[in-house]
Amino acid sequence: MKAAPQAQQRLIDLQELDSSLDRLAHRRRTLPELAEIERLNARRAELRDQIVAAETELGDLEREQRKAEQDVDQVRTRADRDRKRLDSGTVTSAKDLASLQAEIESLGRRQSDLEEVVLEIMERREEAEARVNALRAEADGSASELAALTERLNAEQSKIDEEAGLTTTARTGVAKDVPDDLVALYEKLRGQFGGVGAAVLYRGSCQGCHLALNTVDLNRIRAAADDDVLRCEECRRILVRTAESGL
């Protein structure tokens, strides 16, 4: 392949612009805000599950407390009824009086036990309410943090996109100075070799693979015409000669 030395030099300019675009694309993909947003979204998903579980537990405890309070009320009502019978004087049999007194005492003990149950449930309910409130507060805080992160991410992406747009415009202008067949070869090699399709020969070394060329290859390059498009024998990238090639 043949191309004017000036066109080959412009190929290096094209490579530099493409490398800049690659770096910008990499920066955009690896912005720290992206990782933070991913971490925060994962935590928010955990919080949603934890809130549902905590609210379910709280609902169960509320029902359990209502049931326990109803049991207390039923025992208290029965005990009050028995006391009224005892105080009314309608029960005259000593045996019946003893039995009624024993039942009132038993109901008193039962009421005391049930009230302890209610107190224990109330403590557990307060703890559950505290967990729900704490989880909701964290969820609200994470929502604010996510909004701030998203705003910062959008700003950073906009800056990168603006720079990429200017670089792309410059690339379009440079590409016009390079023959189509040379651009096609360059693009093919870029795809094969990690985004670098052309490299400068600097002081006897290829700047694509950073290996020093041997004497035979250097002599071959010295003998080549100025418009010959050369390839590195090691990495097969397009090799562009400059005043500092060491020839």
How does this model look, in words?
With 247 residues, the protein is α+β, with helices and mostly antiparallel strands. It has two domains: 5-25 and 179-241, no CATH class; 31-174, Helix Hairpins (Orthogonal Bundle). It has helices at 5-29, 32-88, 94-175, 180-192, 215-223, and strands at residues 198-202, 205-206, 211-212, 230-231, 238-241. It has a five-stranded mixed β-sheet with strand order 3-2-1-5-4. Helix 1 packs antiparallel against helix 3 and helix 2 runs antiparallel to helix 3 (94-175).
Task: Quickly list its features.
247 residues, 5-stranded mixed beta sheet, alpha+beta, Zf-RING_7, 2 domains, single chain, 5 strands, CT398_CC_hairpin, 6% strand, Helix Hairpins, 5 helices
Structure annotation, total helices: 5
Provide the low-confidence segments as ranges. Answer: none
Quickly count the domains: 2
Which class do the helix and strand fractions yield? alpha+beta
Order of helical and strand elements: HHHHEEEHEE
Q: Please report which band the strand proportion falls in: under 5%, 5-15%, 15-25%, 25-35%, 35-45% or over 45%.
A: 5-15%
| Mean pLDDT across all amino acids | 94
Cross-sheet strand order for the largest sheet: 3-2-1-5-4
What's the gyration radius in Å? 42 Å
CATH architecture of the largest domain: Orthogonal Bundle
The strand count comes to 5
CATH fold-level topology of the largest domain: Helix Hairpins
How many strands, what sense, and barrel or not for the largest sheet?
5 strands, mixed
CATH class of the largest domain: Mainly Alpha
- N-to-C span: 21 Å
Helix % is over 70%
Gross morphology: rod-shaped
